[in-house]
Amino acid sequence: MKKILYSLTFGLVLLTFSCQKKTANSTVMMQDTIPVQLQKIQMDSVASVFEVSGYFSTDNETPLSFKNGGIVEKIYVKEGDRIKSGQVLAEVKGTETQAAAQQADLAYQKAKRDYERAVNLYKDSVTTLEQMQNAKTALAVAEQQKAAADFNAAQSQIIALTDGNVLEKFVKEGQLVGAGTPVLLVSGSDEDGWIFKSSLSDSEWATVKVGDSARVSTNVGDKTAAKAEVIRKAEGISSETGGFSVQLSVQEPEKLSLASGLFGKATIYPSKKIFSWQIPYDALLDGDADYGYVFVTNDRKTAKKIKIHISKIQHGKVLIDEGLEDAKYLIVSGSAYLKDGSVIDIKN
After folding, report:
1. Which among 229, 232, 257 is positioned nearest to 245, based on CA atoms?
2. Are 35 and 348 in contact (CB under 8 A)?
3. Residue 292 half-sphere exposure toward CB, CA atoms < 13 A
């Protein structure tokens, strides 16, 4: 009788332990299965809108200089002054150029007298035809030298060619400058139009075309934006900025308070579309510079962690150009609880 009771008791214990083990296993399986939401992965064409910073200028800024070096005698304008066409802006001491012009004039007068004497002597058969021709050539050379000296003497002044403004003054009175050294930076009149100058990265440069639309604004005032258009893009990298320069024509300058050199921003809307994958920002994990990680699934049962290359982040979306080629579904919710190989439960 005792043996029977002992056997029954031992059987009940085994049955209870077995039920508990099954319950525990079910709990573990339920805990390891993580609910997620999926998004089908497909490549789309995207308009890559981006912002750049830069400064405003006029379309015809010109550095002015003296043709001949010397000591600056007088600068008649200051930065910000309005100038008129034909106005004398600066002058260099012309002692050397005037002396050279006088020497050239004296040499010309002598050559002229020599030629006239040679002609008269040739008529009297005293000199040969060759001697008369040599005197004529010497006169022509002296005449050209005189013209060059007179021209150099006349370049001792800087004269404004158009109406405009003085943007910058590089030298001071009494300073010695060389030929071609910039003395003043001037801009044309406002009627010539305002432009916005900036620099682009290589990827931005590749998507921008002349004629693309844009909007520009200044860093002061009420941040009003004005329409603009891409009018030039560099075909080579700039040694000053390390990027590719671009210029925008401001089409609504009356909306902005503009001054040459004023900093601002531009939003460019390239007409060229790029092909990439778009994923929600929340799906991106462990971002580092241009790379990050996401969870994907192909069998809708297990999660796989893969590395992707980030092309751009805009408007809450992440543009991916590498890494999703072999993936079918992106896990967009529940990624924080996943690890590579986790069992997933798809929720709508």
Report:
1. 232
2. no
3. 21
Closest to 37 measured CA to CA, from 329, 299, 316, 318: 329
Backbone dihedral angles phi then psi of residue 315, each to the nearest 5 degrees:
55, 40
Q: What is the DSSP string of 223-286?
A: ---EEEEEEEE-SS--TTTSSEEEEEEES-GGGS---TT-EEEEEEE-SSEEEEEEEEGGG-EE
Please answer whether residues 255 and 274 qualify as being in contact, where contact means their C-beta atoms are separated by less than 8 angstroms.
Answer: no
Which domains can be identified in the chain, with CATH numbers? Answer: 34-45+274-346 (2.40.420.20), 50-59+193-269 (2.40.30.170), 65-91+156-188 (2.40.50.100), 95-155 (1.10.287)
Percent of the chain exceeding pLDDT 90 equals: 23
What confidence score (pLDDT) does residue 261 get? 77
∠ CA 275-277-282, nearest 5°, is: 145
As a whole number of angstroms, the distance between CA 84 and CA 194 comes to 19
CA gyration radius, the chain? 41
Q: With bands split at pLDDT 50, 70 and 90, how would you rate the model's confidence at 348?
A: low
Reported as a single tens digit per residue, the pLDDT across 6-53 is 443 444 444 444 444 444 444 434 447 888 889 888 877 666 788 899
How does pLDDT run across 98-157, given as a tens digit for each residue? 898 899 999 999 999 999 999 999 898 888 999 999 999 999 999 999 999 988 888 888
Q: What is the DSSP string of 7-30?
A: HHHHHHHHHHHHHHHHHHHHHHHH
